[in-house]
């Protein structure tokens, strides 16, 4: 599938301010299943862009500003071709056919940041929730993951929160509601509690329905490491394995690590500000 994305974030202040270097996660993650055919930044005020890789090997841009301005505008426009039409096109290693399984020693070491379980108190709450709601657990690994993903999707009510940050997983369970990033963090922590390596993913989803959770916004989901298959995306917000409608940008063990735009502004006095954004994901025919 060929997709075109336009992502604009605009900050407005009531006077000119100075800006720290801004870290930007907006460029999609190239792979054998995703080709970035075009990418362009349009940033005002003028900035110097330095491309680097972070500790998760995500591609990120540092924007260095020299001018003061009352407006900061960051627009990313790109075209991609996604090829993951069948997310179940893999063969698990025999020891991972059924769950629970134990990762090989080398895999377990390399996966340490993604397999480390939550704090004991959080684990206890998650285990109690699983014992109450996830009773008839499939024995085979793939049906197990499908059932867990479906459970989270069907149990929670989606709410496009506009508050900053991510809810703790226990808060999401207590409220029974959350945004896509809250669903993703809950699913990641449930997987780690069960002994599965999992990580948070930020990106875009093509879903033209105005009622979609991803319509006009970035999207978040999870990836689980399966021996023989590698990292496989699961989206608990929509209750599905990730296919060619998904455009991953960045992944991390800690969700806040890959907030799309990270930076500060400076002023000798308090300055009121406004934030506006626009995200359009279109299919190219």
TrEMBL record:
Record's Pfam families? Bact_transglu_N, Transglut_core
Positions of the Transglutaminase-like domain: 172-238
From the Swiss-Prot or TrEMBL record, give the protein name: Transglutaminase family protein
What is the scientific name of the source organism? Rariglobus hedericola
Organism taxonomic ancestry:
Bacteria, Pseudomonadati, Verrucomicrobiota, Opitutia, Opitutales
């Amino acid at each position: 599938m060929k997709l075109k994305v336009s992502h604009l974030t605009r900050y407005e202040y009531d006077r000119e301010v100075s800006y720290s270097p801004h870290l930007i996660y907006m460029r999609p993650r190239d792979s054998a299943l995703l080709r970035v055919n075009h990418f362009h930044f349009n940033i005002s005020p003028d900035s110097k862009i330095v491309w680097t890789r972070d500790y998760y090997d995500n591609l990120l841009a540092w924007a260095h500003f020299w001018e003061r301005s009352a407006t900061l505008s960051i627009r990313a426009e790109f075209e991609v071709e996604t090829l993951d039409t069948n997310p179940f096109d893999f063969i698990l290693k025999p020891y991972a056919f059924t769950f629970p399984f134990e990762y090989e020693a080398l895999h377990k070491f390399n996966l340490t940041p993604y397999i480390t379980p939550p704090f004991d108190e959080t684990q206890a709450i998650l285990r109690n929730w699983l014992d109450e709601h996830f009773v008839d657990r499939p024995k085979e690994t793939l049906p197990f993951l499908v059932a867990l993903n479906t459970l989270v999707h069907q149990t929670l009510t989606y709410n496009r929160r506009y508050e900053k940050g991510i809810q703790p997983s226990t808060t999401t369970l207590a409220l029974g509601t959350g945004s896509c990033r809250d669903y993703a963090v809950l699913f990641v922590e449930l997987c780690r509690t069960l002994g599965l390596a999992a990580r948070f993913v930020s990106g875009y989803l093509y879903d033209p329905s105005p009622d979609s959770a991803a319509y006009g916004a970035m999207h978040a989901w999870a990836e689980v490491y399966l021996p023989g298959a590698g990292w496989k995306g699961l989206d608990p917000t929509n209750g599905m394995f990730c296919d060619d409608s998904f455009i991953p940008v960045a992944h991390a063990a800690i969700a806040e690590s890959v907030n799309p735009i990270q930076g500060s502004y400076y002023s000798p006095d308090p300055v009121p500000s406004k934030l506006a954004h626009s995200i359009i994901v279109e299919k190219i025919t």
